[in-house]
Write a structure and sequence with these properties.
Its EC number is 7.6.2.9. By secondary structure, this protein is of the alpha/beta class. Helices cover 35% and strands 23% of the residues. The protein binds adenosine-5'-triphosphate (ATP) and magnesium ion. Magnesium ion binds next to helix 1.
Length: 247
């Protein structure tokens, strides 16, 4: 397995209840995982712990057998090789699309940076917007730039917190499909947080349902949310049964 998260517990300072209670799961390379749960259930806390913004009181996480944190180790956030896409995209307003993406590529040679910039712009279909500033882009376009910026340094994992919450519902539908394609084409292992079952259904390979800091279920969308998924399938099945029965 690619990522192993074991028994991670965490409480915010001065708060009695655990924000996360014994969170454990494994993730395969290239998998798209959705963490689904109501407000306050601990979804963002999982991402904050993985990215290194918080330190767990217990538990461990390894990425390709490299310890990211455990009882003895705490790798600094910038050394984890984890990309993050925030809810408000957090693009630098005074930088163009290209400059935003190049910002994280300071370790690469100049020629490599140019090639990588071209690749990720193509991946998110934003090549023709490279000279624009964030305020000259739609919400969906800004989101794609934020994803390109996070993907550009080739992180081993990308985390997305409620990536659709700032988009209107029509755009949400379009972006859902785009996001899955972008992540799958890039082959990047990803975890995205949402409170919307439809997001999880449309994008995830597997869904982790959490409530009050505890995992309730982990499974494929069709297994977990099957009750709503196959409404049309059920109708077709009912129809075929009626036809077969000659009713
Ligand atoms: N900085 C903080 N200090 C104290 N408690 C916090 C802090 N941040 C979050 N919490 C608490 O931890 C719990 C989990 O919060 P978290 O932000 O992970 O929830 P969430 O599932 O992301 O919710 P939402 O969908 O509203 O973003 C909540 O009960 C919340 O009140
Ligand atoms: Mg949150």
């Amino acid at each position: 397995m690619f990522i192993k998260i074991e028994n991670v517990c965490f409480s915010y300072p001065h708060i009695k209840e655990k924000a996360l209670d014994c969170f454990s799961m494994t993730i395969e390379k290239g998998e798209v995982i959705s963490i689904l749960g109501p407000s306050g259930s601990g979804k963002s806390t999982v991402l904050r712990l993985l990215s290194g913004l918080e330190m767990p009181s217990q538990g461990s996480c390894t990425i390709q057998d490299r310890v990211i944190f455990d009882q003895h180790t705490f790798v600094q956030p910038e050394k984890r090789g984890i990309g993050m896409v925030f809810q408000d995209y957090a693009l630098f307003p005074h930088m163009t699309v290209s400059e935003n993406i190049l910002f994280g590529l300071f370790n690469m040679k100049k020629s490599e940076r140019k090639t990588r910039l071209k690749e990720v712009l193509e991946l998110v279909e934003m090549t023709e917007y490279e000279k624009r500033y964030p305020h000259q882009l739609s919400g969906g376009q800004q989101q794609r730039v934020a994803i390109a910026r996070a993907i550009a340094p080739n992180p081993s994992l990308i985390l997305l917190d409620e990536p659709f919450s700032n988009l209107d519902s029509e755009l949400q539908l379009k972006i859902r499909k785009d996001l899955r394609n972008i992540l799958k084409n890039a082959g990047i292992t990803s975890i995205f947080v949402t409170h919307d079952e439809n997001d999880a259904l449309a994008i995830a390979d597997r869904i982790v349902q959490i409530r009050a800091g505890k995992i309730q279920n982990i499974g494929r969308p069709c297994d977990l949310l099957g009750a709503q998924l196959p409404k049309t399938t059920l109708l077709i099945e009912e129809e075929s049964e009626r036809i077969l029965a000659g009713v």
